[in-house]
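Predict structure. Chain length: 346.
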Amino acid sequence: MTFLTPILNRVVTFSVLTGAVALSPVLTATAQAETLNGAGATFPAPLYERYAREVKKKHPELKINYQAIGSGGGIRQTIAGTVDFGASDAAMKDDEIAKVKKGVILVPTAGGAVSVVYNLPGVSKLRLSRKTLPEIFSGQITKWDDAKIKADNPGVNLPNQPIKFVVRADGSGTTFIFTNHLSAISGYFKGRIGANTAPKWTLKNVLKGKGNPGVAALVSRTPGSIGYVEYDYATKNNLKSAELQNKKGEFVAPSLQAANSALSTVTFPSNYRVFVGDPGQGYPIVGLTWMMVYNQYSTPAKAEAIKKWINWVLKDGQQFNDDLNYTKIPNDVVNRVLQTVNSTVK
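Prediction complete.
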């Protein structure tokens, strides 16, 4: 079972003309153009942008518009019914699902790692233990030369300067993945901040960026800073990523291989909702991302277009996941999800 995932200073938006989707033969033999509008997570935005370009090769008349506004926005717009599909790295909660009048299916599309990125001139390698990382982001550790960070990094010349924290300004699935892990390994962090898409940070020297691009941009230009972004944003923009201690006690750098290892034991329930707090191996901060599609659409043509899109994403689109450092969804899960979508969406 395998899974996983440039820096923009604005919300990522793309609109790719990919042509018309043929309607079901039962309805009509004439192909008809259909536009699908989606919005949500920035975590998978580079992947969804690639999907939108590539899908036109098989469905040249399908038009996909996706606006990367954050997972919180994706969930809100899904509930409001203002999009054809939403996207989130934080699986919808029961109370959120109950608010979707047209019914909703969670479609896992990829997995990925969240990198802890830092800007510390002169420090090319930084290790953070399971004890140190949550103490940093709960405000217990405030200076780079704190004894606990030094203990994780013997021989490294850490500066005597305050830590500048960079977090998300928007409701974020990336934030949920990050805080879900810290909550799983630290009771102190869980009790004061907790796993949330938009936590109330109790930090000094805190900066807030919109989306993964915003956080990455702030870390890049702020010496002494530390933040968290989806792995592909870190690698594509040459940001330094800390090695983090996993459940086995190993210090592991984020990578596709390490994320695959972490996600290799995940079991998907019938609603495909998974929360990975503290994996038993591999890189410790990993999560999944979902598209949210409705059970009921306004027209048969719209429903058929959604099914075409989701079938392409899970069958043909998965080949592009590795290229952008995202994990793939396992074949057995793909088959289950497509059975649900093809039999339920109307």
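Summary: The two ends are 31 Å apart (CA to CA).
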